[in-house]
Specification:
This protein has 67 residues and is mostly helical. The protein has one domain. The protein is built from two helices and no strands.
């Protein structure tokens, strides 16, 4: 039962990641190494981008399981 529950969650997470990559093309391509560098106490560009894309995805879009 625990394994089945974990599998369902894993599948859902994979679908959400797939939808993010479809809707936001910046997440689907290769990322340049400069995007990962930060100054002290700053969040890197990639982390900010994923956070904003995820927030937009959660606020405005539903996950279509039948596409």
């Amino acid at each position: 039962l625990e394994s089945r529950t974990l599998s369902k969650v894993r599948i859902h997470v994979e679908r959400v990641i797939g939808k993010l990559k479809q809707r936001f093309s910046i997440l689907s391509g290769p990322l340049h190494h400069e995007m990962f560098f930060t100054d002290e106490d700053e969040i890197c560009f990639v982390d900010k981008t994923v956070k904003v894309a995820s927030a937009l995805n959660n606020c405005n879009f539903s996950i279509d399981l039948h596409q």
